[in-house]
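Two proteins, back to back. First:
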Amino acid sequence: MKLHRPADSRGHVRTGWLDSRHTFSFGHFHDPDWMGFGPLRVINEDRVAPGAGFPSHGHANMEILSYVLEGALAHKDSHGGEGTLRPGELQWMGAGHGIEHSEFNASPDAPVHFLQIWIQPDRVNLPPGHAQRSFDGGDRRGRWALLASPDGADGSLAIRQQATLHGAWLGAAERVDVALAPDRRYWLQVARGDVRVDGEILSAGDALGWVDEASTLSLEGAGADIADILLFTLPR
């Protein structure tokens, strides 16, 4: 079964400093048909005005990944995690048994554009944690690179779930394949640019999900700009 989630069907929240698109139900946006996808619970595409952001607030028992597309995002948490996240970097925060954190635009004059991703863990009430890693664009130009995994393989960030996150950058006509297995589920999120998936064009913000599929997909860059794509492999 293939699921379609077009960018323009997502929830939309706009305040004075935040413009946010919600792939799944979040906050005041509730859609019973889109409560998540397996343990993948949140993909919010956020644009935050210069100098603004999310003041300190709490989380528990959630794996939170932040992926910056443009600008810089400043992170600080109650367990000593601190840093500024820039394009090409991925940040993991394991909320564990409880953590307070803040996320602010690190620039006084330029917006920050990023994806906030929540994954439910397979173990609860563990100690909170934080890590941040830079991934060289050359390592994923025209091929998949492992960004997050259960065991931190190949320099990826370790997360507390039997799930992986791969990323690829595709220029025009550059291609990667995805082999789907029926004992796993898959979610493809287009972060930037355009990509052709077995003949279907997806643009930034569009997504596809697969459940109970056994096939090989072909993904190809389909625009003048680099397509930045994220692939989640999740428990069935």
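And the second protein:
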Amino acid sequence: MTRHHEWLLLAATFLVVALCTRLGVWQLDRAAAKEALHAALASRGALPPLPAGQLATTDQAATAQHYRATVLAGRWLGGHTVYLDNRQVDGRPGFFVFTPLLLADGSAVAVQRGWLPRDFVERTRVQAPPLAAGEVQIAGRVAPPPSRLFAFGADPAGSRIRQNLDLAAWSAEIGRPLRPLSLLQQDGAQTPADGLRRTLPQIETDVSRHHGYAAQWFAFAALAALLYVWFRVVRPRRRR
């Protein structure tokens, strides 16, 4: 093997070791993030309900309030209800139903009212769940804005069924400032029987799978390094 090929083999081995090591660290980072999420769910879920007057108005304040329980009073802006597509529950496709709740100060909150299964015959046929008129009280938990899924293009403004929901764009549509968070509505004494599912699966916090993946990637990195040392260093010396 020429010196040029030796350098290429060394570079390839280095890249394999670096890539496998990085993937192992990435899995450990995912495990740490889930552990932190689990700790936040446990600690903030045990706190007393957040007073409505303290609901965040900035991104930084909203992050500190995620997963806190609260009760909000306001009026539904039912004409701006949006159905987020491709949201699965128990392996079934469906929609997350979002409706803005207008608060007394003129701002609004994106409320995830629940999950609605998809019509298997006609995907775009959605049975709009009923909404109470007048002022209502909504019990729920503060959450981040709706999670984004991969999309080939932006959803048309004003469409009922969308892949993602951008709060800034939605705020311009409804003509009201939206708080930088969402509210996951929970069943309560005043919750109507609207056919929406609100008992959703818990966020996965099992980290053992990520630790297992990390161990595999680190093992691949160690194997690549050992094979190079054996075939290019130890074995030639033993022959000599």
